[in-house]
Amino acid sequence: MRNRSIAILILLALLGTSGWASRSWAAERYPTKPIFFIVAVEAGADGDVVSRKLVQKASAILGQPIVVVNKSGAGSSIGYREVHDAKPDGYTIGWASVTIITCKLQGILRYDHQDFTPLGTFATFLPIVVASTKTKRPFKTIQEVMSFAKEHPGEVCMATSGIGQSFWIAAMAFIEGTGLEFNVIPGAGGSGTTIAPVAGGHCDIGVPALGSAKGQLEAGNLRFLASLGTIRAPGEYSSYPTMIELGYDVVWESTNMIIGPPKMPKDIADRVAKAFETAAKDPEYVKFLTELNAVPTYLPPDKVNNYLDGRRAVVQRIMGKAGILKEKK
Length: 329
What we know:
Elements: H1 2-29, E1 35-39, H2 46-62, E2 66-70, H3 77-84, E3 92-96, H4 99-105, E4 117-125, E5 128-132, H5 142-151, E6 157-160, H6 166-178, E7 183-186, H7 192-199, E8 205-206, H8 210-219, E9 222-227, E10 254-260, H9 266-280, H10 283-291, E11 294-299, H11 301-322
Parallel strand pairs: 1-2, 1-3, 6-7, 6-8
Antiparallel strand pairs: 3-10, 4-10, 4-11, 5-8, 5-9
Helix pairs in contact: 2-9, 6-11
């Protein structure tokens, strides 16, 4: 009996060692097949555009194709579920933005950024305030907007993205920080849906991403008023102030990041993160982002969750005030 017990223990030890060796061998060879990259917004959206170029470069570094799969809808929660529920072997990873926080706070998902494997950030879109040049009140400066809104509460029409979306949060941060009252008209989607009503003269102002607004700014249908980021907008728009510079505690930025399923093996996660870091810092990719009026923003995996925790506190407060906080425990 004693000999049999010893034999069983030896067998179990060997099996354990074999399993560890198998996992280690698999990680050492990774990747050996195509990787799926889930983008939780529609093709052509800001997050999709900046991801595809990055993925091309990371694919060349890893030596395997990385296939972009768009899984949009439900505030990006469909794509996040796809990544969260995938096997944590490094062959399904994806894109995320601040909506990974808002989905949980709105009760759409039971998990948020803390429930994924962070793999680094790579780009930030700056929310800006734009004015229509076609309304009966074609505001020329942000000071004009605030002065009029102060004297006529609720009369200035403000277009935003869908309730709970990142640029809706930006608009709410602007309203909260200025203490002014606007007639808020949420769109049905992301930042791009803010542009049409403002450019068409149906709303006085809007809060989109600079990248989304650039075409209509160049066409003369929109006028740049201010940045809601911590820094001024790049390039030709660098002369326009931030709200912080004007003395208002208004800051919001929409940062793009790479995520993996929970419990990814560290050696595989490190390999993926390193490839995307190299891609994100590639001069050609940095130039590409700058031309899109996005800001190159790299944070390593160990810094991502702390950064998002700070963003979460802002979103939680804003959603609580708006009466849409439905976080599931």
